[in-house]
Protein: ABC transporter domain-containing protein
Amino acid sequence: MGVEVRVEGLSKSFGSQLIWGDVSLTLPAGEICVMLGPSGTGKSVFLKTLIGLLKPDKGHVHIEGVDIATCSERQLYEVRKLFGVLFQDGAMFGSMNLYDNVAFPLREHTKKSESEVRSIVMEKMEMVGLVGAERKLPGEISGGMRKRAGLARALVLEPEILLFDEPDSGLDPVRTAFLNQLIIDLNEMTQATCLIVTHDINTARTVPDNIGLLYHRHLAMFGPREMLLSSEEPVVRQFLNAQRIGPIGMSEEKDADELAAEADQELPPLPPIPIQQLPSSGVLRPTQRPPGQWCADNGVTPPPGSFASDVVTTQ
Structure:
């Protein structure tokens, strides 16, 4: 089962440049979350701060009673064992075949025998559909296969928190759809807490339980998927619905002239909220809310046509 990650008042700068400040949110145990934001808003920096690769200037990250922003190196080493990370390019060792790449964390951090290592490695490679490719080198396979190999490696230590840094980067829409389904199925099987950093709007609208949006050096909003997809907040509405009208421009923020030119333009209506993607079993995950539940509980009328799909089977 996944664990809760609680972030309080987190700020990070590089020199005099503030990346983001006073970020507070909670990644609920066992749920899938997505972090969005225009390019350059520090999404990957946020992910690296969560695992202690970067130290924040202020704030706290609480995991299992440990504040990784202030803990000792020994405590950090132990907490990091809770994490599995899929980096943007898979981060494979080019001179090792896929089997040895996936086996590396087990050989580095455990005292398991080679027969135990083999059993675990082949189990994870089967989970990501790479059985038969274990002797190939990273340079001999496609980008999508490298992503899946990286995911298998992230899973071998049975992590309780899974981080995905732009897993769709460089993938075509079909491979992205397969990878999204794999993440959902893995969450159902492992119940790990998942955070996906992505630019893919379809992924953000259909996969997660919760969505966050980093913009203009702060966290614009974080909460249940339906809350953000029905939001009238200008920057949230613009980004999640891929609209030109709104505060975001080519250089992140539009200037006063651009905003003034849009003042008389009518905003397009919010598109329908789609059904959240189900695991391959066709059954709601333990942390997945039934369609429309958040809207009903909070008295929000969703956009017309929302949740139109086949009947969803509940547990």
Confidence is low (pLDDT under 50) at residues 310-315. Residues 173-190 form the longest helix (18 residues). The longest strand covers residues 17-27. DSSP finds eleven helices and twelve strands in the chain.
